Structure formats: structure tokens, C-alpha cells
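Quick illustration, no need to memorize.
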Amino acid sequence: MKLNMHILVIFVVFFISSCSSSLVYNLHDSRYDDLLENIKLEPNLTAVRELRHVYILTQRYKKNINEEKANHPQFQALVHEDLNTTLLKAYVALEKNYTSLNGHYWAMATSFELGEKEKSKYHQSLLNILLEAIWASGDGRSITTAFFSTSTREIHSFIELHGLDIISHTLIHRDEKSYDQVKIKDLKTGQLFDWYFDISAQKNVTISIQ
């Protein structure tokens, strides 16, 4: 009887913990949707900054990070596809993650080529605000001023959109946080320098699902 009671207690504790975790994620998912609705009506830096931080707490983030690790498609390949196909894939990416730099870049570029100038301007505006939001998180010159990052894909896009080339990555752990030290080359001057990105969000998700 004692053994059965012990098993029952473990089950109840696990059930309560699961319900509590689910409730928290549901609240974050709901906040993500509210912010998204606001941003679609009137893009602004304050809402976009909050969206990036809320995004890493949602269920969709856990799913997207897992998909990114399993399959890392190169958006550069879309250059060789039909414009409508490229635009559709951009919208699919944004449906999964509205903070996607690649998603807004390709929605901007393909909308422009298709003659949909207002849509192109909208996605250009979102892209610029997202870049500004990342810069608002730090200057990337050191661990203490590292850029806040939601994913490795975002890091690559952020660097490439500045016309820079990635040379190498170095993973750093400090004070229970994780950082990506990225060695970068300025293609115009040939100068080499480092940028630091706080990647604790994706590392924490990876740990929690293992």
C-alpha cells in the first residue's frame, strides 16, 4: 500500500507541475498573439522588442528551435525559385515566427519584385525595427553587452544583413548563461572583429527537452 501511495504522490506532483507549466506557456502564447496583432496594425519598436522576449517563452519557440536543429534550410536557395513560391515560403516562416529576419527580408524583396510596393514597404519597416531591437539589446562588443539572440539562424541573418561574413563560432559559458562569440570579417575593409551573442534562450530550451 505504501508503494502505491508513493507512486500516486509522484503522479499528482507531476500532473500539477505539467498543468502549471502549460498554463504559463499558454499565457505567453496569448501575449505573443496580442503583440502580433498590435504590430501588424502599427509596427513599433516597443512592441517588437517585447515580442522577441515573449517569443522565446512560447510553445512555438520550442517547436521552431527543434525544427531548426533538425533541418536548417538555406534561404539563399530561394533566389532560384519562382517569386510566388518564395513569397509563400516567406509567409510560412513568418507564420511560425514573426520575428524572423529572413522571413521579412524575403517578403520585402519578393513583394517588391511582384509590384506589391506597400507590402514590400511594410516588411522593410518590420525588418528595420527588428534590427533596431537587436541593437537595442546591446552593442555585441563583449559578453556583458552581448546582443540578445533567439536562434543561431537569427545570428547568421543579422550578421549577413550588415554585409559581413562569419569566420567562426566559439561557445562560452559564464555565470549559468551561454554566449556565442562570433569572429566576423568586414568584406569591405578586410577587418576582423568579434561580436558576442547571448544564446541562453535556445540553450535552455535544448536542455529542457533532452
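The chain has a mean pLDDT of 85.
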